[in-house]
Specification:
The chain is α+β, with helices and mostly antiparallel strands and 224 residues long. It has 5 helices and 10 strands.
Length: 224
């Protein structure tokens, strides 16, 4: 890359580098320097980017304006901004948890009939239910098996033109393969699914839940 003569730039006793050319007469021309990013290029090699001179001043002015706006929003100034933002983040996280807990309670209350009107398949209690849009099928299945440990559950929910399904059985029911049964049933909905023997989920086109449930019931009885 270089000819017989190589230019070397030395700064004090701490930096000696090969240099293809300089862009300033003296380092004082650089003036203010502020780092904008730092990243890894390879093992032991870092890349540092910075802006200098008037560009650096403009960047600091802009960031100062951002800080002033944040100070106005959180009603504190200077270094107190950091603590206030951290507190707001913690409060937000707690509120999100509270909202999630409340949603689960509302969902639980709205789906209490999930545990009612069970029918029998073989020696097992069976429930097939069409659930409201947006419900967490997996959490609902956990609720069901807390109440009906030796059961079989089929859940179905639609959103726009799509159906989401879940088939789950008690772990002691070894004759049923939920993945195979659900996949076969979902052919009615032009869909497919997968999972474990004791629990599978799938999706397809929204259709007649009654026909879909009848097919699943038939397959479950055949398995037992």
């Amino acid at each position: 890359k270089y000819g017989n003569k190589v230019r070397v730039i030395k700064m004090g006793d701490f930096s000696t580098e090969l240099c293809g050319g300089t862009h300033i007469e003296n380092t004082s021309e650089i003036g203010l320097l502020t780092l904008t990013s730092e990243s890894s290029l390879a093992t032991g090699v870092r890349r540092i980017e910075a802006v200098t001179s008037e560009t650096a001043m403009a960047r600091l002015r802009q960031r100062s304006q951002y800080l002033e706006k944040i100070e106005g929003l959180v009603k504190v100034k200077g270094e107190l901004v950091i603590e206030r933002v951290e507190n707001l983040q913690a409060d937000l996280k707690n509120k999100i948890k509270e909202i999630s807990t409340l949603k689960e309670k509302v969902q639980s209350a709205g789906n209490q009939d999930l545990f009612d009107k069970l029918v029998s398949i073989g020696e097992h209690s069976y429930k097939a239910a069409e659930i409201e849009e947006g419900a967490d099928l997996r959490k609902l299945s956990d609720m069901f098996f807390d109440k009906v440990p030796n059961g079989i559950l089929l859940l179905y929910s639609t959103k726009k033109n799509k159906a989401a399904t879940l088939l789950r059985v008690s772990k002691n029911i070894t004759k049923i393969d939920c993945s195979k049964v659900l996949n076969e049933g979902l052919k009615l909905l032009n869909g497919k699914g997968g999972g474990r023997k004791d629990m599978a989920q799938g999706s397809g086109d929204a259709g007649d839940f009654g026909k879909f449930e009848s097919k699943i019931s038939e397959l479950l009885n055949q398995s037992l």
